[in-house]
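Backbone geometry tokens:
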Amino acid sequence: MSESYPVKVLGWHVNPSGVGLCDTLEVNICFEGEEQVALVPITALPISCLETLDGVSNEELLQMLRPYFDEWIRRKNSR
């Protein structure tokens, strides 16, 4: 896939909010050359992926979250 997507995932981890619950993913991204942290609600992931996040690569995570980041980019650009 050689298309250029404006968001690159640099790293990520699950941000637990309580005992046994994971509310958000803390995703380190690069957007338009600027590094930032996106707090992504776990509900943005396809439900089938929730159990299998161990070992997911940055690229795979980006593919799973593509609809979320499409909307995120739209919001950023509309400011």
